[in-house]
Amino acid sequence: MKLYVDAGNTRLKWCLEEAGTTVANGAGVLDEENPFPGLAGYASGIRGIAVSTVASEEKRERLLGYLAVLSKVPARCYWSEPERGGLQNAYSDYDRMGADRWHGMYGAWLDHKQGFVVVDAGSAVTVDFVNQCGRHLGGYILPGLQMMFRSLKTDAARIGFDPEQVLETGPGKSTGECVNHGLAWLSDAMIARIRWDAQAFGLADVLVTGGDADRLIRLGLTGIHRPDLVLAGLRAIADEETS
Ligand SMILES: Nc1ncnc2c1ncn2[C@@H]1O[C@H](COP(=O)(O)OP(=O)(O)O)[C@@H](O)[C@H]1O
Ligand SMILES: CC(C)(COP(=O)(O)O)[C@@H](O)C(=O)NCCC(=O)O
Ligand SMILES: [K+]
């Protein structure tokens, strides 16, 4: 079995595969005592470990330390690349791009050769455009929902509210409504821009991933929900490298 790990800034997602079939998968938090609940029982059967991470070096080392205790098989980290299988990175400093973005785009490229937009709504929101030639046209990085709640809480002295995920976008009549509706309104505007840009670039497929994907879809983002997109790209790359 091979273990694939997508370690973001908030959560880590993993899946265990055997001959193209998912044996188990799960999610956890790196700072917790057991970041991989549900995995330990499979440890002796692990024959390869591939990691995609955007966490700090300190957290990456903690993750590798945990994996070294779990299994004797060394873990290999996979990073952003200039090109793979016809997909071309728009960054000239390609190694500055978050590994999750590259792996998400590659996961999308595998079955959307007609071009696509990837929206990854995680700790940060990233939007990336890839055309039918496999050319990454570039993208955007925006603060994620929790990040925006946190910055309003900590950087403004007199904004007291309970963060709530709402779909209402009408003008608020209390601090709580102004903040919660405000962030839904902002996401709504982002969704309209994604739709507009996708059309301008001639891209029909919008693939949505990340912990807040559902929220964006409920707010009206028309797209294909692919919770596993980063892991799918990582899996394909790791398998190409080791076959
Ligand atoms: N069980 C959960 N734990 C933490 N965040 C969650 C959970 N379910 C949904 N979320 C939302 O998902 C976001 C994190 O998304 P995720 O894709 O896991 O992030 P990252 O890849 O940056 O670690 C959080 O900001 C939160 O709003
Ligand atoms: C933009 C990100 C913070 C998103 O990370 P996530 O929300 O998935 O934790 C990550 O892809 C990252 O650290 N990128 C490096 C900068 C870049 O992609 O240009
Ligand atoms: K993200």
Automatic annotation (TrEMBL):
It catalyses: (R)-pantothenate + ATP = (R)-4'-phosphopantothenate + ADP + H(+). Its EC number is 2.7.1.33. This is Type III pantothenate kinase. Its main location: cytoplasm. K(+) binds at D120. GO terms for cellular component: cytoplasm. GO terms for molecular function: ATP binding; metal ion binding; pantothenate kinase activity. It comes from Marinobacter guineae. InterPro entries: ATPase_NBD, Type_III_PanK. The keyword Metal-binding applies. It is found in: Cytoplasm. NCBIfam families: baf (TIGR00671). The active site is at D100. One of its GO terms (biological process) is coenzyme A biosynthetic process. A monovalent cation. Ammonium or potassium. Catalyzes the phosphorylation of pantothenate (Pan), the first step in CoA biosynthesis. Keywords: ATP-binding, Coenzyme A biosynthesis, Cytoplasm, Kinase, Metal-binding, Nucleotide-binding, Potassium, Transferase.
